[in-house]
Amino acid sequence: MVISSLNIPRVLDLIRLIESYLSELRPFSSTTKEVFLSDKKNPPFVESYLRRSLEAVFDIGRHILAKTYGSKAVEYKAIAKELGEKGVITGELTDILIEMAGYRNRMVHFYKEVTPGEMYEIVTKHLPDFDRVIREFVSFIRTYEAKKGS
Hints:
Layout: H1 8-25, H2 33-38, H3 42-69, H4 76-85, H5 91-109, H6 116-125, H7 127-149
């Protein structure tokens, strides 16, 4: 059931924004923990771009669900779960996205508990999760356009 048209340019702009944030984060992924932690500006820098990337991912997910399925999901974990249920993303990625939603909430609501070491672990081990989310969103958009065009 199509509620209204998916705003593909808006989604692609957000994807480009995520990619620009990831390009800022990638240099940190090859540093040692000692080097990363030696500059106290690194963890908050990573945290800011990570949070922005997560916000954009869930903005895209919310938009896809609202415009293609009429969903009113607003909580990030609910968005992640529904994206999986609707087949927008794979089941395995759904689980990852639910974890990402939880971490975003931790960053926003329990920010005093987020450690520089956590930022290092995320930037060195979990940036590929964003690449995977982007690939699956782009795949969904291609399928959506093909159905709309036929």
